[in-house]
Amino acid sequence: MQVAQVEHLRQRHSLLRTTILSHPQTHHRLHHPKQTLPTHYPTRNSLTRASTLLTSQTHINTTNTHRLCAGATLFTARDPDPHAVDAGRILGVRIDVLLGGRVSVPYTLLLHRPHPALTPALRVHKHTVPPAVGLDALLERWLPFPRVDVRAGTVKEGGRGQDLVGLVRALRRRIVGWRRRVEAVEGLRGELGLRGGEGVGEGKERREGEGEVEGIAAVDAEGREARVEWKGGLVALMKVGVDGVVEACTVRDADGVESKVGQRLLMAGQDCTVASLGERIRDLPRRLEET
């Protein structure tokens, strides 16, 4: 209990500190201490420390605002390996994704120059991009590496040069789309009371009183297809677009016969995102029986 209380107090201290240091009135008072602070204010050292804290918090706020608005940040780093190429110089790209009012864990792409004496061309050093995003295909298109003959000291450029800006834009677009699709499916699972494993057929434990839905999950790692199973054998396969919009779907009964009526019922309405299908998915078996 004491550990929980200490952690709660730490979080509250952090929140209050950030709030006070970010308030415009705090900036005004510290920038004009003679006019705004009482005469018995502590020593100049205290004022200096407060100004230092204010400057640090302002930098943090600026950085956070940039990450939220820009979505991608360049930074430099150094590889501690004494034998690293290009004296260990690293160019990093940090990609932040804001979904549901929350910033996800950042995705990082680290680049270096394998042959700085011959070409400034960049190559991936390390990264934290999920395999489902398909980084290799993007690198082949936006960051093709030229053929380098170290012995001859020659470089043979391909037909297309490197475009780091294009790579970052395309990479962030794919990451955002992947996260939206995955979170949309997970949100739908939570709305319908599904819990358990990730795959269809593994998450069949339900809360008491829920409807006929037996399982919902992404079929592929990229989350471009989602499968819904109902009790009784009814199955729907949905093709999910970049923004979580259902582009197409197929509904089949227990005998594998395609149901055009079920497809129309599931895709009815102007809003056809995965997140909006909860009620339609829940009521589909009943509505099919009524038709």
Task: Provide tags for this entry.
single chain, 291 residues, alpha+beta, 4-stranded antiparallel beta sheet, 14 strands, 22% strand, flat
Please give a structural write-up.
With 291 residues, the chain is of the alpha+beta class. Helices cover 40% and strands 22% of the residues. The radius of gyration is 27 Å and the shape is flat. About 5% of the residues have low confidence.
Sheet with the most strands, sense and barrel status: 4 strands, antiparallel
Summing up helix and strand content along with how strands pair, one would put the structural category as: alpha+beta
Percent of residues in beta strands: 15-25%
- Spatial arrangement of strands, main beta sheet: 1-2-5-6
Shape: flat
Q: What string gives the helices and strands in order? A: HHHHEEEEEEHEEHEEEEEEHH
Q: Which regions have little confidence, pLDDT < 50, spanning 5+ residues?
A: 197-210
Measured distance between first and last alpha carbons: 58 Å
Give a count of the beta strands, DSSP E runs of length 2 or more: 14
Helix count equals 8
Helix content: 25-40%
Work out the radius of gyration: 27 Å
Mean pLDDT equals 82
